Amino acid sequence: MNIAIVVSEFNDQVTSRMLNIALEKAKFMKLNVKFTCKVLGVFDMPLIVDTLLEKKEVDGVVTLGAVIKGKTKHDEVIANVTLNRLAKLSLKHKKPVSLGITGPGMGERQAHARIRPVSERAIEAVLRISQELEKIK
User: Fold this and answer.
1) pLDDT tens by residue, 26-82
2) How far apart are CA 33 and CA 62, in angstroms?
3) I need a labelling partner for 102 at 20 to 30 A (CA). Which of 13, 28, 117, 123 fits?
4) Of 84, 109, 107, 108, nearest to 97 (Cα)?
5) Residue 42 has what pLDDT?
6) Annotated catalytic, 93?
7) How much is the pTM?
8) Of residues 74, 88, 92, 128, which has the active-site annotation?
9) Quick one: which of 8, 13, 32 has its CA closest to 123?
10) Using alpha carbons only, how large is the chain's radius of gyration in Å?
């Protein structure tokens, strides 16, 4: 299976580790990472994800990011808009887009605690969704 990974650079102390773990997991699961794309923040992901999903050689996309709470509710707005757009892209292209984006409403400690489990499950999810889609085609 050929996948792409899109990672946010915002909160890089978390997301750079997420990317490394996701790449390790993909290699372990024998998934071919065709593209690794970096965007400034999770809000910037949908356009890149849409373009990747249009490629015949990409079977699914893994998204990685950390939306950490600040002093306002900006984290909630960013996360909700982004997740809605990503879900619509998955449906539009009929290819899996897995959610490796943590937050909103979490602090830095929570973000660090979720690095490994979220990164690994995002890789596992894209494969699992693809396998289930194959069963029902």
Assistant:
1) 999 999 999 999 999 999 999 999 999 999 999 999 999 999 998 899 899 999 999
2) 10
3) 28
4) 84
5) 97
6) no
7) 0.96
8) 74
9) 32
10) 14
Domain count, the chain: 1
HSE at residue 2, side-chain half, CA atoms within 13 A, is 9
11 is written with which tokens?
């909160």
Edge-first strand order for the sheet with 32-39 is 32-39, 2-8, 60-68, 97-106
Tokens of 102: 């943590």
Q: Check: CB of residue 109 under 8 Å from CB of residue 66.
A: no
Give residue-wise pLDDT tens across range 88-130: 999 999 999 999 999 999 999 999 999 999 999 999 999 999 9
Structural domain that includes position 33: 2-136
Name the percent of the chain in helix, strand, coil, to the closest 5: 55, 25, 20
pLDDT at residue 137, as a whole number: 84
Q: What is the spatial distance between Cα 7 and Cα 36, in angstroms, rounded to a whole number?
A: 8
**Structure tokens of 60?**
């699914």
Strand residues in the chain grouped as ranges (E): 2-8, 32-39, 60-68, 97-106
So what's the pLDDT on residue 70?
Answer: 87
